[in-house]
Design brief:
Layout lengths: L3 E10 L2 E11 L4 E5 L6 H9 L6 E6 L2 E2 L10 E5 L10 H11 L4 H14 L15 H13 L5 E5 L7 H18 L2 E6 L2 H7 L2 E6 L2 E6 L1 H6 L4 H6 L6 E9 L3 E5 L2 E4 L5 H4 L6 E6 L4 E3 L11 E13 L3 E8 L2 E8 L9 E7 L3 E5 L8
Parallel strand pairs: 3-8, 3-9, 6-7, 7-8
Antiparallel strand pairs: 1-2, 1-4, 4-5, 9-10, 11-12, 11-14, 12-13, 14-20, 15-19, 16-17, 16-19, 17-18
Helix pairs in contact: 2-3, 2-4, 3-4
The protein binds adenosine-5'-triphosphate (ATP).
Adenosine-5'-triphosphate (ATP) binds next to strand 2 and helix 1.
Length: 367
């Protein structure tokens, strides 16, 4: 186990900056998820931690050890890839034993360790098979067993579940998380799947265009996003965002197309400098409800706006109401099956302690 420190690392490929001045401390035993859209620099960051790429600038530390220029074999890391990368010509046993053989472990210890890893991943029955005789999920278990068998200081995973079907992905998600909790190995896990990030990470580091935007526990990143990008990247259906103006008129209001919301007094200090200015107003679908149909739980301060039902998405356990408010369509997530008629006028209640306001120019969160 080891703490990993990234100190202002930048990676340039020619003139292109794939990773820009990234600073991040990953704690000993932590499960950190690097989350972001395709091309944001997640894999490049992971490859620098692995030693497969060298940073153009900045330093990487494992504990107090500067590993910036150390080759992968001297870092005591293991990597699991999306493509499994198990060797087709070797039986499962030999695949798992391979890194131990490279490190010249004695034969009896190899046997013990392979048994230990195979039991943890529940693949003891498969040790005699070739990868071609395994399902995708089983192959990925072999890849994970091979990664942990050396008891690495740092476990690096790059979209390890992407090739599995949806159901298996959910099952493996829980298993990898449980395994990591048991082994307490410092783990850095790359994904573009926000649900994977939310459910697996002790903390999530959200990246976009080579930059680290926010890092924090899943609920913090979800409830207190620091920017428009983080707010809309995490959450499904995504956060509603509409144009609004901060207005002072015998009280402080957020006014936009088809709505005017009176804000509690404690918002004044934060929004003072935005009075008269255009902002972006955000609310998550589950932080609103339709009056008379459903209620918001544990909510103290609300505002009410009017809308017209435009479309109903019945998901079984939830209903997503698409409502027209002025010229905008907003989504409201209600628990259960709520068959509201299209065209019906509704009163929408908003939880004022879960609203978001973003600066239009910088797209940074004000509230
Ligand atoms: P994905 O989820 O699609 O793998 P990612 O967030 O992991 O995306 P990276 O693979 O880190 O993104 O790539 C970041 C950017 O750097 C991309 O624009 C990519 O094209 C570029 N890039 C990566 N490796 C190289 C390379 N060896 N040479 C030039 N450009 C590269």
């Amino acid at each position: 186990m080891v703490e990993v420190k990234l100190d202002r690392i930048t990676k340039r490929f020619g003139n292109f900056e794939a990773v820009k001045e990234l600073t991040l401390d990953i704690k000993d035993g932590e499960f950190l998820v690097l989350l972001g859209p395709s091309g944001c620099g997640k894999t490049t960051t992971l490859r620098m931690i692995a030693g497969l790429e060298t940073p153009t600038e900045g330093r990487i530390y494992f504990g107090d050890r500067d590993v910036t220029y150390l080759p992968p074999k001297d870092r005591n890391i293991s990597m699991v890839f999306q493509s499994y990368a198990v060797w087709p010509h070797m039986k499962v046993y030999d695949n798992i034993a391979f890194p131990l053989k490279v490190k010249k472990y004695p034969e009896n210890e190899i046997k013990e360790r392979v048994k230990w890893a195979a039991e943890l991943l529940q693949i003891e029955e498969l040790l005699d098979r070739y990868p071609a005789q395994l399902s995708g999920g089983q192959r990925q278990r072999v890849a994970v067993a091979r990664a942990i068998v050396v008891e690495p200081d740092v476990l690096l995973m790059d979209e390890p579940l992407s090739n599995l079907d949806a159901k298996l992905r959910v099952a493996m998600r829980a298993e990898i998380k449980k395994l990591q909790t048991k082994l307490k190995v410092t783990t850095i896990y790359v994904t573009h799947d926000q649900v994977e990030a939310m459910t697996m990470g002790d903390r999530i580091a959200v990246m976009n265009q080579g930059r680290l935007l926010q890092v924090g526990p899943p609920t913090e990143v979800y409830l207190k996003p620091n920017s428009l990008f983080v707010a809309t990247f995490i959450g499904a259906p995504e956060m509603n965002i509409v144009d609004a103006t901060v207005v002072e008129n015998d009280g402080l209001f957020l006014e936009g197309d088809g709505f005017k919301i009176l804000l509690p007094d404690d918002f004044r200090e934060i929004l003072e400098s935005y009075i008269g200015k255009d902002v972006l107003f955000g609310v998550r679908p589950e932080h609103m409800t339709v009056k008379g149909v459903s209620t918001l739980e544990h909510v103290t301060r609300t505002a009410e706006i009017e809308g017209i039902v435009d479309f109903i998405e019945a998901l079984g356990t939830d209903t997503i109401v698409h409502a027209k408010v002025g010229g905008n369509i907003i989504k409201i997530k209600l628990p259960g099956h709520i068959p509201l008629p299209v065209g019906e006028k509704i009163k929408i209640e908003i939880d004022l302690d879960n609203i978001h306001v973003f600066d239009r120019d910088t797209e940074k969160a004000i509230i």
